[in-house]
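agent: user wants the structure for Phage head-tail connector protein from Kurthia populi. delegating to structure tool.
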Amino acid sequence: MMTLEELRARVDTNVEDVPLQVKLDDAIDFVEGYLNQSFDDDNPMPGRVKRIIAKYVNSELSFDGAEGIKSESLAGMSQTFESREERDNAFKSLLRATRLRKLRW
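agent: tool returned. relaying tokens verbatim.
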């Protein structure tokens, strides 16, 4: 499993522990659900999966309050956001590349 300390080493944020732990738990649930497997002492989480989880959390932090905004411009500065669905599809593609997905019949 991935700990909050491991996440903090990979994500530059000053978010408090409790909300960050919630985002970490959500990211782990997303990854385990998509891969159809749980990670524990008997099935440790590979480093490449931890990197994907850290990217997912970082992306989730940038979405706070910006759901569904494609782009915005203010005083000559612009930002582009993708939807959560587009973001999730990109992460599913990264997870498929790990070849860790288990098929269930």
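agent: one observation worth passing along. The two ends are 26 Å apart (CA to CA).
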